[in-house]
Each structure stands twice: as C-alpha cells, then as structure tokens.
Amino acid sequence: MAYVVAIVAPGEMGSAVAARLSERGVKVITSLAGRSAASAARAQRAHMAPVADDDALVEDAVISSCRSVRPARRLRWRSGSSRR
Fold it and tell me: Is the pTM of this model over 0.85?
C-alpha cells in the first residue's frame, strides 16, 4: 500500500516534513491555491505534488504543519465536522 500524506501549509516546516517523507517514498500532496510563489517553490523542492484545491486534500489524512488554526478552520467543513 502506498502512503499519501496531505500537508496543509507548504511553508518552511511543512516543506521540511514533506521532504523527509518524500525521501522515504511517501507521496505528499498540497494545495497551492492562495499560496505565495515562495511556498510553491518550497513545495516543488520538497517533491510535493500539487492538487487542484482543498477538497482534494481531505480525501486522505491531513497533517497541519503550522502553528496556526486557520488551516484547520478552512478545512473543517470539508471533513464533515460540525464542531466550531
């Protein structure tokens, strides 16, 4: 079984995690929608595969690699959670 991990925030920490996972054969996906060119470059260097949007991220397990709760709030409704 091939593992797929979604990284919500492809910033410095998320890209570092993605690079380590990619080195070990894990497919890492991320959405670059609304992200900066710097984030896109980091994602590419870390061998992250871009997906169309946030909906595609929640089809698999999600790891939020940032300290902000903003990504979790952005994705919560897609996972079917009714908590606020």
Answer: no
